Amino acid sequence: MDIQLPPEFPQSAVDQFDLLREQGLLFYFPTDGEVVHYKRFKFEFKISTSIAKKPILAADAPERRGKGGPFVDPDPAFVVARPGPDHVVELSMHAMMRPHYVLHTRLFAPQTDDLDLGDWAATWAVMAAIQERAKQPPMMIYNCGYEGGASQGHKHVQVFTEPDPGFTLFPAEALALAGAKSSEKTTTAETRDNAPIVQHPTVPYQHFVQRLTGPVTPEYVLTVYQRLLAEVRRAHKEHVEKKLAHATNGVNGKNGTNGTNGYKTHKKSASGTPGHNTPALDDLPASMIANNVIMTPEWMCLIPRRRGGKDGTGAGSLGMLGMLWLKNTKERAHWEELGMTEHLVWMGLPRDDLK
């Protein structure tokens, strides 16, 4: 599936981004990050007014069912490309990168849907243009479902230049630790179809990573995505079955009262928030389909999600990698109160294979 973008893209989009920012219509306030190492996990916290202004729809908002929303009738000033008949590329009004693209379906589709071949074709066209024309490393994310951190209910992915938090992102590190060669670009068809799916040995919540090898095409990316998505669904199913069995037998967890391998589940914080100490049945996933998708030209990572956040402190795809975009210092303090890594486990699925 071949999708053509305007020959001036992405430079034309950068120019439009700068113009909208000058006009006060687009919010972008670059800020330095705070890097924190906590329990063998690396975080980067960035506080930005851009995020403070960003609207987040409630889980039951009618816009999540196609009744209105910013993508139904997009502002032409923000539209920078139409990759094919079914997709639109807009500039994000609340940007953390320059530029920050939102690629959405032209007609409404729910944010809980799987990505299909057309979605991947449009996404890869934008990523390839960033890589080949702008000579920058691209990244895409898909926050599937409210519990996956989706702020809008209209199906969309986000694309931007890969952030550099000052440390290696754990999917890339997981592949390196598993013996994958980051520079490898050729392989057999059999290896491409059966490439190892790995998890980082110290990340305490479930995630599934596969290296992308050989020529990257929409069809190949879709195959990798569906393979990793099967792992996400298996993990969701097994987690529910285990929790139900524990509840039936009067057991809360394997290695503690919360079943999260020794990680606390958010005891009452200094600010008085009730925390996350709940009975086993209440620990069942709020969603069986929510997940995060992150892809670069080198790898794809999927992370199963059961919760979007607590008291306004949550995470999307980048947040689950440790890169948090925050509204204010109060939210930053709340991450400390909720245990940081423990909060990520609470939003994702705990691993049973870690000691």
Structure description:
- Pfam families: Ap4A_phos_N (PF19327), ATP_transf (PF09830).
- This protein is α+β, with helices and mostly antiparallel strands.
- The termini are far apart.
- About 9% of the residues have low confidence.
Number of helices: 9
Q: Provide the CATH architecture.
A: 2-Layer Sandwich
CATH topology-level name: HIT family, subunit A
CATH homologous superfamily caption: ATP adenylyltransferase
Counting structural domains, the number is: 1
Rough shape?
Answer: globular
List key phrases describing it.
alpha+beta; HIT family, subunit A; three-stranded mixed beta sheet; 27% helix; globular; Ap4A_phos1/2; ATP_adenylylTrfase_C; Ap4A_phos1/2_N
Brief synopsis:
The chain has about 350 residues and is α+β, with helices and mostly antiparallel strands. The chain has one domain: HIT family, subunit A (2-Layer Sandwich).
Question: How do the helices and strands line up, and which of them pair or pack?
Answer:
Elements: H1 11-22, E1 27-28, E2 34-38, E3 41-47, H2 49-52, E4 79-81, E5 87-91, E6 94-95, E7 100-105, H3 117-132, E8 138-144, E9 156-161, H4 170-177, H5 189-193, E10 208-211, H6 218-248, E11 291-295, E12 299-304, E13 309-310, E14 313-314, H7 317-320, E15 323-326, H8 329-337, H9 341-347
Parallel strand pairs: 1-6, 3-15
Antiparallel strand pairs: 2-3, 4-5, 5-7, 7-9, 8-9, 8-11, 10-12, 11-12, 13-14
Helix pairs in contact: 3-6
